[in-house]
Amino acid sequence: DVNRELKKRAAAKAVELIKPGMVVGIGHGSTAIEAVYCLASLFETGKIRDIVVVPCSNHMVEETRKLGIPMSTLEEHPVVDLTIDGADEVDPQLNLIKGGGGAFLHEKILAEASRREIIIVDETKLSPILGTRWAVPVEVISFGWRSQAEYLQTLGATVKLRQDSSCNPIKTDQGNLILDCRFGPIADPVRLAGQIKGRAGIVEHGLFLGLASEVIVGCRSGVCHLKR
Ligand code: DER
């Protein structure tokens, strides 16, 4: 479909930034996986070698293992040269909402451990103000999660516990719960991020502020490379 084509376009451009000897972080989601497919074919044809990939989620570890790309972990490589990841919403300052795939705690840890954080998106993710399009996911421990939901509502959100198709709560790789918080357009994301993180029991949120070094956008007209 058109969207997949735009994701592949952005992914191929991002993979061009990978140089031999690099430790490459890989985020989670349907766009990040396109970068893994692209990397795998370059690896097979010998166009790229001497790299090792650090996936951020159990799911992406499995996908990367299937494709036979050398893998490692943050424990072995606490500093990563370049990470490629997706996003759900991107504003003009390259601030992001991430977490549609539920792996944003690990993704943010990986992003903060990376020298360069390359975000790849199709053009549908661009937004004038964060929150216009997506709810902000918040990871909470299960103890007292309803108290967190009440608190997040006082911050102005409509809060929904993320469930699977049979209405069981989704558990993250860490075994925590996710509350999707729809704030609408967020005038001051930095202030909101501080309010969310200031609460015991709230582990992390999907506002990635000042973390993306660059955003590569697959558009119908081609590819745009946005830099901070
Ligand atoms: O969960 C995540 O943070 C993903 O990166 C998500 O934000 C983007 O997923 P997509 O590439 O499948 O749209």
Automatic annotation (TrEMBL):
Residues reported in the UniProt entry to bind substrate: 28-31, 85-88, 98-101, 125
Oligomer status and interactors: Homodimer.
Active site: 107
Pathway membership: Carbohydrate degradation; pentose phosphate pathway; D-ribose 5-phosphate from D-ribulose 5-phosphate (non-oxidative stage): step 1/1
One GO biological process term: pentose-phosphate shunt, non-oxidative branch
Stored Pfam families: Rib_5-P_isom_A (PF06026)
Name by which UniProt lists this protein: Ribose-5-phosphate isomerase A
Organism listed in the record: Desulforhabdus amnigena
Functional description taken from the UniProt entry: Catalyzes the reversible conversion of ribose-5-phosphate to ribulose 5-phosphate.
Catalytic activity field: aldehydo-D-ribose 5-phosphate = D-ribulose 5-phosphate
Keywords: Isomerase
